[in-house]
């Protein structure tokens, strides 16, 4: 049995950290496609705002940046 690639291990680590954060995370299709809901930071013009973003991590992550959309 082969071990996971460094990119796969990095995705696993980063997504687990995100799941343990205060953000609401919904896994869509495996750990490389998910939705994140987060609130604007306090004491900024974004306070009170809520954002929903979709994140797609390629097989080349972290060497290729994530695709971010709404």
From TrEMBL:
User: What is an example of a Pfam family matching this protein?
Assistant: UQ_con
Any idea where the UBC core domain is?
A: 1-70
Show the InterPro entries listed in the entry. UBC, UBQ-conjugating_enzyme/RWD
How is this protein named in the record?
Answer: UBC core domain-containing protein
């Amino acid at each position: 049995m082969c071990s996971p690639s460094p990119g796969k291990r990095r995705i696993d680590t980063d997504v687990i950290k995100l799941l343990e954060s205060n953000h609401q995370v919904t896994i869509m299709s495996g750990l490389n496609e998910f939705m994140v809901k987060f609130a604007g930071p306090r004491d900024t013009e974004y306070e009170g705002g809520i954002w929903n973003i979709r994140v797609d991590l390629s097989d080349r992550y972290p060497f290729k940046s994530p695709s971010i959309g709404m």
